[in-house]
Amino acid sequence: TRTLDLAVIPGDGIGPEVIAEALTVLRAAVGDSVEVHETRYPLGAGHYLATGEILDDATLDALRQHDAILLGAVGGDPRDPKLAGGIIERGLLLKLRFAFDHHVNLRPTRLYPGVTSPLSSPGDIDFVVVREGTEGPYVGNGGAIRVGTPHEVANETSVNTAYGVERVVRFAFAEAEKRRRRVTLVHKTNVLVHAGSLWQRTVDRVAAENPDVTVDYLHVDATMIFLVTDPARFDVIVTDNLFGDIVTDLAGAVGGGIGIAASGNLDPSGAHPSMFEPVHGSAPDIAGQQKADPTAAILSAALLLRQSGLDEAAARIERAVEHDLAGRGNAARTTGEIGASIAEFVASST
Ligand code: NAD
Ligand code: IPM
Ligand code: MN
């Protein structure tokens, strides 16, 4: 039998709650056809406060050996001075994305039947954001001088390389070929002219090789308008790391809520393990109360299976989620109840 060797980082807050459900559903989806190995890594804000460790080299090397990583969410109370400056987010989450060359951050949005969008006439929402994952201002190539004085200067530099932009743009076009063949570049080329020009020229060049794909450009501010007034126009959005971060929270909201928004941090070359996680964070406001919706984590597990070549198991999860969402109504259910009902449907369809 085939094996799937998973690294699991439950993380902080609602992370462990949603990951427990995602793993139950994943196991139900693969059944006996795949031997699933789980290795748990107790990383996150809680672990750091208890041990002083964020992510050491030995742990990074151990993570590298797995087929894929499933992560809940990391990060603690933003007001905790011991966690200031995004020490966990940068030292753990971003470090993993950079170390494992996760240059594609794939974030699909679909308004499932029966799900209420906050939009009054949402239309047929089904698009995917291909967010660059290893460049932009996330590189940390900034600095400040005269800190704390009236003459302080604080710079954050967005790094955009021809190599980095081209590979993510190519991925977006390949994705479009499998979908409705429409790529929208989202940027701010009217102000960020150097990076904007590189992105636009790269898209133009790749577009010329893919004449069957319709290409569009939108400034990021106008994108906010269309995501609310006409989200059905989008098929594949390709954008940089920071714009992609912002666009995908709005995408999650219009698609029925951050509780169902999934994501994959991919190294499509397969040289490093890809990492799958909900778009949402550790939600300290509802942690420990079984109030979190595990659907985003469950759909992230489906993305993991698809990336691992287990398409049928992935599709079983997606059908089960679709079934569950369609019948949800207003009944309040716990994290565990939602997970169990999706797992049950998955098991009955294998
Ligand atoms: P958040 O996504 O954790 O929460 C925003 C709001 O959405 C909260 O009201 C929360 O209750 C709600 N929410 C989130 N997930 C939900 C779910 N599954 N079901 C129901 N409601 C849900 O964002 P935040 O408050 O800005 O961040 C909290 C912490 O998480 C911070 O430390 C942040 O840095 C971190 N964070 C981590 C990741 C990650 O690990 N991938 C992603 C985003 C934020
Ligand atoms: C996300 C998160 C992260 C990001 C943070 C926690 C570093 O918001 O995964 O969307 O900005 O990428
Ligand atoms: Mn984000």
Describe this structure in words.
- Belongs to the isocitrate and isopropylmalate dehydrogenases family. LeuB type 2 subfamily.
- Keywords: Amino-acid biosynthesis, Branched-chain amino acid biosynthesis, Cytoplasm, Leucine biosynthesis, Magnesium, Manganese, Metal-binding, NAD, Oxidoreductase.
- Residues 5-342 form the Isopropylmalate dehydrogenase-like domain.
- Pathway: Amino-acid biosynthesis; L-leucine biosynthesis; L-leucine from 3-methyl-2-oxobutanoate: step 3/4.
- It comes from Microcella alkaliphila.
- The protein has helices at residues 15-30, 45-51, 57-64, 87-99, 162-177, 193-209, 220-229, 241-254, 295-307, 311-326, 335-348; strands at 2-11, 34-40, 68-73, 104-110, 126-132, 143-145, 153-155, 182-187, 214-219, 236-239, 262-266, 274-278.
- By secondary structure, it is α/β, with parallel strands linked by helices.
- The protein folds into two domains: 1-108 and 258-350, Isopropylmalate Dehydrogenase (3-Layer(aba) Sandwich), CATH 3.40.718; 117-255, Isopropylmalate Dehydrogenase.
- The strands form two sheets. The chain has a ten-stranded mixed β-sheet with strand order 2-1-3-12-11-4-5-10-8-9, with helices on both faces. A two-stranded antiparallel sheet has the order 6-7.
- Strand 1 (2-11), helix 1 (15-30) and strand 2 form a beta-alpha-beta unit.
- Helix 1 runs parallel beside helix 11.
- The model has no long low-confidence stretch (mean pLDDT 97).
- Bound molecules: nicotinamide-adenine-dinucleotide, 3-isopropylmalic acid and manganese (II) ion.
- 3-isopropylmalic acid binds next to helix 4.
- Manganese (II) ion binds next to helix 8.
